[in-house]
Amino acid sequence: MSAPTPSAETQLAFLTKIQRLFAEGDFTATYKFALLVTLADLAVELGADDGAALPLSNRQIAERFIQLYWRHAVPYGTSGNDTASGVLIQNAGTQAAVLTAIAKFRAVSRANTVQQARTEPAYRALLSKVATVVSAQPLNYLQNFGGITDPFLYERAAPGHILLKPGVAYCLRRFYPLVQQLCRVHWVDHIKGNRQNHEILGDAGDLEDFLFSISRQSLTIIGSELLKLDGPKCFYCGLSLQDAEVDHFVPFSLYTRDVAHNFVLAHATCNRSKSDSLAGSQHLEKWLERLTSYSSQLDEIGFAAGVPTSRATAHRVAAWGYGNAQSVGARAWVKPLHYELVDDRHRDLLVSR
């Protein structure tokens, strides 16, 4: 059921509490950052641009925790001679239980990616274990800050479920890039500040990429498979490709979770020119047609590369991104040095597909 959108005052109060949560909260592990990242992602993917509450299950959240921490459960090592290789500690004491559970699963599994892991019978036990940890720890303590409990984000609903309070999904959607950036910066700082990691980290110039970016191996697979699927031509200008670059159609700076259906191949020139902009209506129409025509092939590419796949998610993310852009009068990239206003044309394309 829809509800009125939060007022400007309510949105400001939400941002103030998010700021207080980071400033006054007790972050003994990285779980709270992961929980905020997850809630923001799910608000974008499942919420709406109204003030309605949003129900979520602990298992939905646990799925995202496994995706977030999957790569963290393998050793991190820099190329420096003064560093050691090891799994980064993400708790003030012993290793975080979620990481330990994933590491144990990976040790006895043939799965190299979460997508492969989900096909194995033992994955259900891993998911249940992570859901239990999520329920007992970050869901219980995220909203504790400044010496009090302020349940401004969610409340416990039916067993195994939470309910994002009215207006919260809207605010997470509206301020998604800010929330994600705050979480990532504090997550990196938390790991760097843990003395147990100092021998492993060294200067740690690529720590953020290790924690949050798609791996080079996955990018190589995606680029190779997209070349077979779409042919050697730039998605945007249509000209022949020599050295193709993999581009996020909805910019990564706007939505920071990789989904296979969001990738296209582009010239370096087009990719750099488009940068962090949404694409114009002619590109959006082509991309939406591609979602329909090649959905199963993109699923296969995502599985091979170990990247989440979902045509519906990619579509909802695009609708959210263009909706936000239209509300603030943003402009979309058409070609180098040429932009157009994000307006009803873009909205209508997304509604009709």
TrEMBL record:
| Classification via SMART domains | HNHc
Which UniProt key words apply to this protein? Endonuclease, Hydrolase, Nuclease
| Name recorded for this polypeptide | HNH endonuclease
HNH nuclease domain span: 222-272
Under the heading Pfam families, the entry gives: HNH_4
* Organism (species): Pigmentiphaga aceris
Please give one Gene Ontology molecular function term for this protein: endonuclease activity
Organism placement in taxonomy: Bacteria, Pseudomonadati, Pseudomonadota, Betaproteobacteria, Burkholderiales
